[in-house]
What does this fold into?
Amino acid sequence: AQTVTQSQPEMSVQEAETVTLSCTYDTSESDYYLFWYKQPPSRQMILVIRQEAYKQQNATENRFSVNFQKAAKSFSLKISDSQLGDAAMYFCAYVGSTDSWGKFQFGAGTQVVVTP
Amino acid sequence: DTEVTQTPKHLVMGMTNKKSLKCEQHMGHRAMYWYKQKAKKPPELMFVYSYEKLSINESVPSRFSPECPNSSLSNLHLHALQPEDSALYLCASSQVTVAQGLYFGPGTRLTVL
It folds into this structure.
């Protein structure tokens, strides 16, 4: 069974600074997808960024980028130039490419606190 | 604008009531999901509909009953709930290939008295 681990319950960052959230996963599959989701206090879960395991290049979306290390099974999220609106719970998620039922595995989450 | 809508936003019900949660997706997706989420915890999968076929998380009690009349609409029927069922209930949809991830609705905040 696949597991996703987020070892940081909470991370604090000052506005305009950079914060990195860690995520590791365990799988025996060679092809899969990884995601970071953001859940602000309003509670709507939003997809931030996605990574395909067979792609070497790290995904980026504006101020969000990932460091994908397939051999180490690591998938960290970097938030650059942090803004107050980045304050949220962030969940890392995994799904196998052959999973016909789409049973995504979520990590426990990391609460990001942004201070002025 | 959210393309996955859920109603109601809030629901308070007694343990003897019967109610339903509604979810609609306007993205042309063929899979719909129901998740239960407690505060500061990750979402827990309850049900998946893919091409109108149902997959159930075996740990979900029978007082929760999903329905999917078509690929863009799903209802979650509730009856004889317990106070521990109070949570945020999230609906999500995806393409049949999971590569693009899940798209979540805003959720229904359920309180069982």
In short: The CA atoms of residues 6 and 73 of chain B lie 10 Å apart. The first strand of chain B starts at residue 4 and ends at 7.
